[in-house]
Sequence to fold (301 residues):
Amino acid sequence: MARPVWSGTISFGLVAIPVKLFHAVRRKSVSFNQLDERNLARIRYRKVNAETGEEVSEEHIVKGYEVSKGRYVVVDPDELETFMPAVTKTIELEEFVDLDQIDPVYFDTAYHLAPDANAKPYALLAQAMEASGKVGIGRFVMRNKQYTAAIRAEEGRMVMSSLAYADEVVDPHEIEELAALDDVEVSDKEVLMAESLVQSLSADFEPAKYHDEYREQVMTLIEMRADGAEITTPKVEADAPKVIDIMAALEASVAAAKASRENHPTSGSTAKKSSAKGRTSKKKAATKKAAAKKRATKKSA
Fold:
């Protein structure tokens, strides 16, 4: 059963809509503990002085910000308290924008927004946003941290994503390798061939097709080890990089994609259905023609 991580209201103008916030994604990973191989006891970490190696008690630990190599500015937690955002229970919507105006790079953590108490105002806002195609942009505070968020409506429900701040997004102009693209020239034929490959591989997005194979294999290994099974893992040899002709590779890829589509069971079954349908239609037409001919013969007689 999902539990809310935050509850409050969506506020815009004089409207306040009670909501609950739920995680939209549950991250799954395989985590390991460090153990002493002699008795498989957990390894503990101690806080020690980097210069003396002596363990430091909690009472002697302060917060410091490194302004230059080896030079720190110590800040008292009480001083930081005054800058903490006021704890509110409100998502303040400041404006509504088109979804395509938000670069996906800004999207961070996703949450489901569910109605709390009266669901009608929630449903009304969700339907209005979905009909207009607009996304609500606002701010809220959770665990003493302020976030900017985007709320979008989908099938009558609302989903909220926290957004990265503009100064947190890396400017692509800072990446030298991307600057080299300005000098790259491609021919119209190469573009058309690449477009053909994209088209041949186009399909509807099905998230369930993609899964974490590494995590699944590791969990299988762990379960087998826990059951006492002996396991031999295959050796993985990295292939040496190959220098290929881009046009030859594109042509081969397009041909392979088309062959794969033609040999796909779905395509075959569709073709069979179409063929059967065609034969049935022809048979019905022939039957109708024979009946009409018979009626005409009787009438003339």
Summary: The first helix runs from residue 77 to 81.
